[in-house]
Amino acid sequence: MTERLSLCDAQTALTPIEQLVLEQLPHPAHEIVDDPQCELQDGHEGPHAALAQESGTDDTWWLLWAPDGVKLAVRGEELKRRLHRLPSCTAVSPEDADEECRLPATHPGAHSFAMESSGPRTPSAECRKKIAAALREDIDAGERAYYDEIEAQLTAPGTPLPLLTESEALALAMMLRL
């Protein structure tokens, strides 16, 4: 296996306005990270970039921020930071055709598949519901009836849960994580 390149260690905190803008985006893909880390290759030139949110279809919002001595120019105006919708890089890993670069197009340095991972993002509540629905579609009718019964017991007001077997407790724990 090829050794992965290091990520930039720059980190920032979202401003309240940035947080508000990201919370208002339709169909968020993941939970907002309050203190995003730059996802570019360590030692890159220019502004830092961190994925802020993916929204709707192909809307990828990046937080760009300029370290001291670096200019971030937007329409002729010099800024310190900006939320910006950027197209995605189209590069694909030569080792795995299913692994695409997760950085914005025209990013400096290496592609994301050649670097350390910035870590998984927690799917948004909306995405978790879609994942749960897709998983439920894949189970047979007998299993579905069983899980529906457990879910009904969990949501029934004032009804105590009966004692659970170990396999029932495991199934319940898996459902609650969805």
Helix-and-strand structural type: alpha+beta
Terminal CA distance: 33 Å
Strand order of the largest sheet: 1-2-5
Number of strands: 5
Gyration radius over CA: 21 Å
Strand portion, in percent? 5-15%
Mean pLDDT: 85
Q: Looking at the structure, what is the overall shape?
A: elongated
Order of helices and strands: HEEEEEHHH
Query: In this structure, how is the largest beta sheet organized?
Result: 3 strands, antiparallel
Count of runs of 4 or more consecutive helical residues:
4
Q: Uncertain runs with pLDDT below 50, 5 residues or more?
A: none
Helical content class: 25-40%
Account of the protein in words:
By secondary structure, this protein is α+β, with helices and mostly antiparallel strands. Helix content is 27%, strand content 15%. The chain contains four helices and five strands, in the order H-E-E-E-E-E-H-H-H. A three-stranded antiparallel sheet has the order 1-2-5, with no helix packed on it. Strands 3-4 form a two-stranded antiparallel sheet. A hairpin with a 2-residue loop joins strand 3 and strand 4 (77-79). The two termini are 33 Å apart. The mean pLDDT is 85.
